[in-house]
Amino acid sequence: MGWSGFDQRSFPRVQAKCDIRILQSAGGIIRTKTENLGAGGVRVILEQELEKLSRVHLRVTLPGSSTSFHCDGRIVWTVRSTEPRLHQVAYDTGIEFLNLRPEDKDAILTFTENQTH
């Protein structure tokens, strides 16, 4: 179950399973796949809750690409739910991109545009 409130995003998102690594400030690494992606951030489903407004470092690989982009991120929302795929409590989590390089933002915009056409 995802968040169903008003969408205030500046950039459209597309359903996309991108490899993502989330490096926490305490040093832990979470490896997962994105649920959706846009030039402003990503949505992921995690087995652990990340504190709202906490900072993380991200490494994301777009589908069909052999290269990754890195940027900082901020946890902007989290919703506790029961994830059917995991058969356990999960955390639907929104992460805003911070310090995203212009060329990486352009790559995401191109990817999302190609997915919607």
When the domains are counted, the total is 1
| Gross geometry | globular
How big is the Rg? 14 Å
Overall CATH architecture: Beta Barrel
Instruction: Estimate the helix proportion, in percent.
Output: 10-25%
User: Main sheet?
Assistant: 6 strands, antiparallel, barrel
CATH topology: Thrombin, subunit H
Q: Tell me, rounded to a whole number, the average pLDDT.
A: 87
Given helix and strand content, the structural type is mainly beta
Strand/helix succession: EEEEEEEH
End-to-end distance, in Å? 27 Å
Total helices: the number is: 1
Query: How much of the residues is beta strand, in percent?
Result: over 45%
For the biggest β-sheet, the strand order reads 2-3-4-7-6-5
Unreliable residue runs: 1-7
Describe this structure in words.
This protein is mainly beta and 117 residues long. The protein has a single domain, classed as predicted glycosyltransferase like domains (Thrombin, subunit H, Beta Barrel), CATH 2.40.10.220. The protein is 13% helix and 50% strand. It has a 6-stranded antiparallel β-barrel with strand order 2-3-4-7-6-5. Strand 5 and strand 6 form a beta hairpin.
